[in-house]
Prior knowledge:
The chain is mostly helical. Helix content is 85%, strand content 0%. The two termini are 25 Å apart. It comes from Roseivirga ehrenbergii (strain DSM 102268 / JCM 13514 / KCTC 12282 / NCIMB 14502 / KMM 6017).
Amino acid sequence: MFLDSVVKSKIEREQQSDSNLKSILKTISWRIVGTIDTIMISYFITGEVSLALSIGSVEVFSKIVLYYFHERVWSSVKLKK
């Protein structure tokens, strides 16, 4: 009985969540979309392609670092159920 409930619980969790590979691919695709958006907005504001690309390249790395620290903070938060 106990083993059955453990296996069933594990299967249900796996069905509800994305695989690690899918999460990584989603993260990369979202970062690409965000960076393209930043480059486009930068271009519309500045009118300079080289400046827009520079802003976009800085943005990629700053967002990665900020996301890492954001995740670390959230990993320490304990919510009551």
